[in-house]
Amino acid sequence: MAAKKAESSKYKYLFGTPAQPTDCIGGIAIGSVSPDSNVIKANKTFLAVPWKITGGLGIVPITNKGALPEEIPLIMQEDGINECAFNPFDDHVIATAGQDGSARLYKIPEGGIKSEITEPIATFTAHSKRLMFVDWHPLVRDILITASNDEAKLWDVSTGTVARDFPAVYKGQITSVAWNYNGSICATASKDKALRLVDIRGSSIASEVQAHSGAKGFRAVWAGKREAIVTVGFTKTAEREISMWDARHLSSPIFNLKLDNSPAAPLPFYDVDTSVLYLGAKGEGTIKLYEVTDTGMTYLSDFKSPAPASGMAMLSKSLCEPMKCEVAKFLKITAAGLVVPIRFEVPRSNMSFFHEDLYPDTYTGKPTQEGQEWLSGVDRDPELVAIR
Q1: Which of 27, 115, 162, 280 could form a disulfide with 68 if both were Cys (CB 3.0 to 4.6 A apart)?
Q2: DSSP state of 337
């Protein structure tokens, strides 16, 4: 099935523009991370990258410009860091997934790291095997997920205890966790090729399906308010493909699009406000843009760059400039250690006023509830705010 070109979408001319070299950040010394890691993580204040020094994590203000000094103060732990994740409700707290099977939380001082940080504010002895994945619940305070190659746990950070164990069905590393609109259920993508809907509070698998037949890992994103999940992976013949699944009936995809035979690992990002899927890839400079609909997706455009990405991070919508018709911003990191900001905007002939049609109400970024309340079974939709 081919993705038709969008004809009537307000985002059909959406295009990307990379920052000028003087506005980029150079000198990032990328370390050895999980092949399924995004490599770079970012929030409204900082970016984070596992450093070339074993156990090192570099934290850099996103407002920096130019090359970093050859040596910068790092977060340092004894064992290697395979993944990291910023607390969605505190720009100054970050979690790490360690080679020793432990997850650690670190506090970043105001203004950034001025001297080496070696003491975490919390340590969770999570798994007997190395941790390959760590991430926070995007809506609920103090809920953290950790995963090794064959098991996953959900933590209540406020008590420092395992709140739930994921069902023991995984036969391969979890590569992504995507939550539905109100955060009541999640979809996991894993290297055993299975897409699973998990009712984690009930410690049960709601449904599952073999999503992609290829040997490489795949990723999943939830399509906002829709009862739909978008996955990006590979066929048996190593062809990249996008599938869209009805979360109520996972038996077969409602949409499938074959892309190309590139070996580049996909990096999908979904904008809930605009229903636009940004599909980057490790080892490629192109970002493909699609608009997701109830029945599939339509092609919008490609952003092309000669510099391949080693990783990408999507920035907060609050960092976009509405008077420039910006609807998304990303950070791309290259193998040379250059962080390139990329802005995506919709061309409008008159930029002297606010184009309200481009900006649906967006998530405030405030937690919907505390972890204990959510664990008891309470669900709440995210609070929205108008962009002006």
Answers
A1: 27
A2: S
Return the H-helix or E-strand segment holding 234: strand 228-234
Half-sphere exposure in the Cβ direction for 136 (13 Å, CA): 25
pLDDT at 33: 80
pLDDT tens-place string over residues 108-122: 999 999 999 999 999
pLDDT tens per residue across span 31-73: 988 778 899 999 999 999 999 999 999 999 999 999 999 999 9
CA distances, 131 to each of 88, 107, 127, 139, 264 (Å): 20, 20, 7, 23, 23
What's the token pair of residue 30?
């990328």
Backbone torsions φ then ψ of 123, nearest 5 degrees? -130, 130
Q: Helix H segments across the chain?
A: 371-375
Q: Scanning the structure block, which residue is given the tokens 């409700």? A: 89
HSE-up (13 A, CA, CB side) for residue 72: 22
Question: What's the Rg (C-alpha) of the chain?
Answer: 20
Which run of H or E residues covers position 184? Answer: none
Residue 185, both tokens: 């259920």
For residue 291, give the H/E element and its range.
strand 287-292
Buried b (16+ CB within 10 A) or exposed e, 14-35: bebebbeeeebbbbbbbbebbe
